[in-house]
Specification:
Elements (H helix, E strand, L loop, with lengths): L1 H21 L7 E6 L5 H9 L6 E5 L10 H7 L4 E5 L11 H15 L5 E5 L10 H17 L3 E7 L12 H7 L11 E5 L12 H11 L4 E6 L8 H9 L8 E7 L2 H5 L6 H10 L12
Parallel strand pairs: 1-2, 1-8, 2-3, 3-4, 4-5, 5-6, 6-7, 7-8
Helix pairs in contact: 4-5, 8-10
């Protein structure tokens, strides 16, 4: 009896510790990748499934394409990965009227529902190419309310652009203070930041300060990098290591990163060396903190 009781106690303690660990903030970490096309799907699924950590795959739903074009991809990727669905890439936002965007939101959310773990309701929303701010806000708020009403998780992605904007009103923090910050009851589950050093004079921001500031604006949202990457082949490994190994201590910081060129750089997994670079970066405990002040 004593041995059985001891064994039961050990099992009980182990179970409690497991439950505590599963509810810790560490379990909220997002290890993101992006696929900007679903051709070569078998190799995409195979490459994703080989990662040791659980991946969140952002699927970029192409402009003017019906949701039915992605049914097979969503179903296949859902078996090996969490999914973040990008309703519409920022580059095409201005091409859609408010009503056309609303129709697109309704179509995609109805088609895939909870199979998409995170709905990206707005991508690079302060980008200067998105068009009229009121139109952008109308689209974002409709998508946010639609997703929230259905009980799904939402994400908005901002565009970090210190000293590389054409219109100062589109600087990320200024845009927030003049638009989304004034929207009542706007509290997305995730607030992500898109950033490409190639587009911003190779600036390496002080991300700790950036995310500390975002946490002040969105204290209840989870924060992270929404997309990053470079087209310079000689710099790709350096960039992957810099971003995926960042050590950010801001409350609710979950990582993300969502390397934009995953399909091009890491598929098939066994012929693209950057797959292993990304795999190693996602499995490291090292932290890198760099950059100028924001």
């Amino acid at each position: 009896m004593h041995i059985r009781k001891s064994g039961f106690c050990v099992l009980l303690i182990f179970t409690i510790l497991t439950l505590l660990t599963s509810n810790s903030s560490g379990q909220d970490r997002v290890n993101g990748i992006t696929i900007d096309g679903v051709n070569n799907l078998n190799n995409i699924v195979s490459s994703i499934s080989r990662h040791k950590v659980r991946i969140t795959t952002r699927i970029v739903f192409d402009e003017w394409q019906p949701a039915s074009d992605y049914t097979n991809a969503v179903n296949r990727i859902d078996t090996v990965s969490d999914i973040m669905g990008e309703i519409l890439d920022s580059y095409y936002m201005n091409a859609y009227s408010v009503q056309q965007f609303k129709d697109r939101v309704d179509e995609y959310v109805s088609a895939f529902g909870s199979k998409v773990d995170i709905w990206e309701i707005g991508n690079e929303v302060n980008g200067e190419w998105l068009g009229n701010r009121d139109s952008v806000l109308a689209k974002i708020m409709y998508a946010y309310k639609r997703v929230k009403k259905m009980g799904y998780r939402s994400a908005v992605t901002l565009y970090y652009n210190k000293n590389c904007w054409e219109n100062p009103q589109n600087e990320m923090f200024r845009w927030l203070s003049e638009s989304l910050r004034d929207q009542r009851k706007f509290e997305p589950d995730y607030v992500f930041v898109s950033y490409y050093e190639d587009d911003c004079n190779n600036l390496q921001p002080n991300w700790q300060q950036v995310f500390d500031s975002l946490h002040t604006l969105f204290p209840n949202s989870k924060l992270g990098i929404g997309e990053c990457g470079t087209m310079h082949a000689s710099r790709k490994a350096e960039y992957i290591n810099r971003y995926y190994k960042m050590n950010i201590t801001t409350p609710n910081y979950v990582g993300g990163y969502f390397w934009w060129y995953y399909r091009q750089d890491c598929v098939p997994w066994n012929t693209k060396p950057l797959w292993q670079v990304l795999e190693d970066a996602m499995n490291t405990n090292d932290g890198i903190r760099d950059g100028d002040s924001y």
